[in-house]
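User: I'm designing a mutation panel for Beta-glucosidase and want to avoid disrupting the core. Could you give me a predicted structure to guide residue selection? Please restate the sequence first so the numbering is unambiguous.

Assistant: Good idea. Sequence first, for numbering, then the predicted structure tokens:
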Amino acid sequence: MTTPMPEFPAGFRWGVSTSAHQIEGAAREDGRGPSIWDTFAHSPGRIVDGSTGDVACDHYHRYAHDVALLADLGVSAYRFSIAWPRVQPTGAGAANPAGVAFYDRLVDALLERDVDPVATLFHWDLPQALEDAGGWLNRDTAARFAEYADLVAARLGDRVKLWITLNEPFVHMSLGHGMGVHAPGRMLLFDAFPVAHHQLLGHGLAVSALRARTSSPVAIANNYSPVRVLGDTDADRVAGAAYDALHNRLFTDPLLRLGYPQGQDFDPGVVRDGDLDVIAAPIDVLGVNYYNPTGVRAAEEGSPLPFEIVPLDGYPRTAFDWPVAPDGLRELLVGLRDRYGDRLPPIQVTESGCAYDDVPDADGRVHDPERIAYLDGHLRAVREAIDAGVDVTGYFVWSLLDNWEWAEGFTKRFGLVHVDYPTQRRTPKSSYAWLRDLIRP
């Protein structure tokens, strides 16, 4: 028999997460402008199943029903993202009234059901007009991001309970600009460093804009992955350290006044005097997104990268073929505390979840015992980190709904709620009921 889940501290924030482009749809309604993901998805061969996010989960029209699902689940918070091109169709100028009005309605609906709105300002959907001007390679995009943050906070700052500036800037840099498998599809390898710096500069400028408009806490959500060095040579260990610096430290060290990691093959010319002070504007929460550890060894001679990513054996796998390693989350949380000490603000796990091939049975029910086991293990890992003295104050499941999963289209299901995309019918899975019973014992 499974041992009962340990209790979590009073006031622990239970939440679920989504992102605008993955669920909203309404891609051409009410003045919304195109984003880089609209352009990318409509380019042949970019998305596994040839789909787009034009309709996604139609959350733009069905948000009231989705808020009711949140209320029934019993979560205390809902992390959603605001679509920059819905608020500023070209990434500049005045706010689009119809676009901002949607988020007004959503926030009010959440508060009416006692669910805290947690708003992410950038979850990868850069307005295409800004990309045409250079995107995050262009320093000016950081300034445009701060102006956008000011517009949103002016309208919602009195009601949003936690602001998150950026979601996973490492992933947006590496997959979108380094390897070309995400929008905008650039393949720059280490020449993508300006994207890292300008995202972080935009974060710092947005923190100041938010502070001027609201007293709610401010955070950033970083993706982290504990490194498993596969090999026992000095070259393997150097490769592991290089990957750790790129994935886990590049977007955290400068936030906490440690500057950029040393010894990395990046061109620092884009960093101007005063930038690191802007980036290190104090944050109230560090958002931690965790899915799996990463196996690393030394790259073969002639490789453009100093490391090679290799599969980790000995773990169960998700439908994404990611290893299920709950203890990696405990290791990560304790490691952040040990690495940063008193510099580290309180942590909230802002994404944690898994994709499986969930199919309704003959009665229309969706049983997903693998997801229940995943959540059980990862929540126990969080509790172990808390017991070890790490200040973890919340956990958000990715995701409320099955959704449009970026380059994988509709082929991967992460949701607590099954979505039949042709009909948009929502069916809570058995994991939804499991989490509801955990939150509401």
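For picking mutation sites, this is relevant: The chain has 14 helices and 13 strands. The mean pLDDT is 97.
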